[in-house]
Each structure stands twice: as structure tokens, then as C-alpha cells.
Write a structure and sequence with these properties.
Layout (H helix, E strand, L loop, with lengths): L5 E6 L5 H10 L3 E4 L1 H9 L5 E2 H5 L14 H8 L5 H9 L7 E5 L3 H5 L6 H6 L4 H11 L5 E3 L5 H10 L6 H31 L2
Parallel strand pairs: 1-2, 1-4, 2-3, 4-5
Length: 200
């Protein structure tokens, strides 16, 4: 397995993220980030490269479009042992991304508020986050994907033991956890919309 050299971090739940990012940075891992996450990391002295700088495209549509870009998803989905993939990303100037740390817009918390509006609920449907999680999980052999802050400590311990890497088993377990998480997230959205329809 290759060592992790570049990570993208975009989290709504920032519990433990500064400490985790400091550990990654101390291992020489470049950190890409967006919005509030980038600000939180930078204010703690962690070097961060904005995703917009990485892609060459600005955030747009009030932040609805940030990471939906070939330079992100090409870097996540490219198979490191596939010669054609490697030739294509070189041709298009795409850098590999070896780790994704994402947790999603707080849809469940938002809709649990008694005064929540339908528009607020809709704006808390995450698009870029699940897309990155799915891309990274599909390519779990080459990309570590982390959705649960409670996994940060164990991941750092294993990386220190494995010379900056993680085992195939750990990578697969993390990917499975992602699909379980995004499945529940989509179910919550589906159920909420069904309730809205029933009351129309």
C-alpha cells in the first residue's frame, strides 16, 4: 500500500479535527480543505491549501459547488496500479488524493429543530460530502476514507505503526462504515420528504 501524501478535510462536526490534522501534518501530509474547516485548521497553525486553489475553480452558488471537480474526483478515483488511469491524471494535471476526512451537513439535527423551515432543511442536504465519500470508498485500496471522528485516534496509531499507512483490512472497514453512514443519511432525507408530501 502507498503512503498517504495528500488529504482532503471537510467536516461539519469539528470534534477532534484540529488534533487529527496536526498529526497528519506532522507526518508530512498535505492538507486540502474548504470554508469553515480550512479556517479552523489555519487558526490553529496547521498549513492548509484551499480546495479552490487546488482545482483552479472558485467556490460558487453559496458554497453548493466546492469539491465537485475532476481534480478532486480524478485524484480520488484513479487506480494507482492502472497504467491508463495514471497516464490520464498526468495528462490532465490531476494530483492524487490519498485520504478523505468528511462528515456531512447536519441534516438530522436541522430537521429536529421545532422552527426549521423547509428551505433550511433542503440547504442542509449535503452533496459534495457524500460524493467524495463514495468516490474514496469505491477506491478504498488507494484512498483512506474517514467519516467518524471516533476513529481518528486509532487511525493515527496505525499510521504510526505502519510507516504512515493503513492496512487493507482497516481501509475496507472504513469504506464499509461510510456506505452504512451515507445510506442512513439518504434514508433520513427520504423520510423527511415523505412527511412533507403527506402534509401537502
Amino acid at each position: 500500500m502507498p503512503k498517504v501524501k495528500r488529504a482532503i478535510i471537510s467536516v461539519s462536526n469539528k470534534d477532534g479535527i484540529v488534533e487529527f490534522a496536526k498529526e497528519l501534518s506532522s507526518m508530512g501530509i498535505e492538507i486540502l480543505s474548504t470554508g469553515g474547516t480550512a479556517k479552523a485548521l489555519r487558526s490553529s497553525g496547521i498549513p492548509v491549501r484551499e480546495v479552490s486553489e487546488h482545482t483552479g475553480s472558485p467556490e460558487m452558488l453559496d458554497g453548493r459547488v466546492k469539491t465537485l471537480h475532476p481534480k478532486i474526483h480524478g485524484g480520488l478515483l484513479s487506480r494507482r496500479d492502472n497504467v491508463k488511469d495514471m497516464e490520464e491524471i498526468k495528462k490532465y494535471g490531476i494530483d492524487l488524493i490519498d485520504m478523505v476526512i468528511v462528515n456531512l451537513y447536519p441534516f438530522e439535527e436541522t430537521i429536529s429543530k421545532p422552527d426549521v423551515t423547509f428551505d433550511d432543511a433542503i440547504e442542509n442536504i449535503d452533496i459534495g460530502g457524500p460524493t467524495m465519500l463514495r468516490s474514496a470508498s469505491k477506491n478504498f485500496k488507494d484512498v483512506v476514507v474517514i467519516v467518524d471522528p471516533s476513529d481518528y485516534s486509532a487511525i493515527i496509531r496505525e499510521m504510526k505503526d505502519q510507516n504512515g499507512d493503513l492496512s487493507y483490512k482497516t481501509r475496507l472497514e472504513l469504506a464499509q462504515k461510510v456506505f452504512k453512514h451515507t445510506s442512513r443519511y439518504d434514508s433520513l432525507i427520504s423520510e423527511y420528504l415523505m412527511q412533507i408530501i403527506k402534509h401537502k
